Amino acid sequence: MNEELSMWIKRVCELAGEDSEFRNAFLNKLEASEQIKNEMIYFMHNNTFLGQYSVAGMTVVDIMIWQTDHFKSDLDRGLYDMQSNPNKMLIRAFDTMLDMEKDPETYIQKYSTDTGTDYPGKY
Questions:
Q1: Rounded to whole angstroms, how far apart are CA atoms 64 and 90?
Q2: Is the model's pLDDT at 119 over the cut of 70?
Q3: How many domains does the chain fold into?
Q4: How far apart are CA 75 and CA 1, in angstroms?
Q5: What residues contact residue 94 under an 8 Å CB cut-off, 6+ apart?
Q6: What is the pLDDT of residues 4-27, one digit of tens each?
Q7: Is residue 16 assigned to a domain?
């Protein structure tokens, strides 16, 4: 793996509060996906998303939006006592996309049924 990318991911994981176990697992998964690695390298250099690769029609931006909504749902239910962490949201979106490559149907099901607290009475 590209040394610059490895060091950048290490720093993002540190800022996100992720441990070395998560980071190492993430790096191993990333090494196996050239398309997602390219998306991440683009983000590293440009601080914006390339958005050319998708899994089952979902880009990393789509995943991040879903996770943001899901995160807000958890906040509404009192499951988090911290402020939003953009580094955590970023690394987790890419991690989810890596997992989604292996099992897209499970994630599509989650995205279509777990939509946060976007309507009254959900919780």
A1: 7
A2: no
A3: 1
A4: 36
A5: 26, 30, 36, 39, 40, 60
A6: 999 999 999 999 999 999 999 999
A7: yes
